[in-house]
Amino acid sequence: MNKVNIxxxxxxxxxxxxxxxxxxxxxxxxxxxxxNIQKILEKSNADLKLVxxxxxxxxxxxxxxxxxxxxxxxxxxxxxxQFNSFKITLKGLGVFxxxxxxxxxxxxxxxxxxESSLIYxxxxxxxxxxxxxxxxxxxxPHLTIAxxxxxxxxxxxxxxxxxxxxxxxxxxxIESVKLKRxxxxxxxxxxxxxxxxxxxx
Length: 201
Hints:
By secondary structure, the chain is α+β, with helices and mostly antiparallel strands. It is 26% helix and 38% strand. The protein has a single domain, classed as Cyclic phosphodiesterase (Cyclic Phosphodiesterase, Chain: A). The protein has 4 helices and 10 strands, in the order ββαββαββαβαβββ.
């Protein structure tokens, strides 16, 4: 049976909670490599908003602003998730929507794509029963590391993206899925864990 962990104190709120379900990336050497690439990106003088290393994650489902009661139902659904621990390999620097119109800079996933996709599909089915819409675009697992705010420094940014498109950021073992709360501030989002479900093995 999956082990679960709920921070009940964080649920005692009188207003809607901005939530998402994700896999956290916490391995120190991977985060250091990501920080290094962010420093290189900064030198491009592109107009970027970098993601803080402690906020790096793989999003499985963005839930938006939901009520406390809905949060509890999401937790009950997550308790029934079935997955074993698995390894993911993080490789390649990419961009959405395209290299010529960069908006989101991300790190890709090679090994572990199938396993993370199976968790995503479980969540889609379980959450659809609670009224959440299924994603029309499908699942494209990635780690967002920066957002592009304008076209400033675009040419230099493209050069960096080309240089590091096959960069290896390492591998890590995934053993849990988390329901995260997001509080938006002027300095950026602050994330906290409301609930965690651990792998079967």
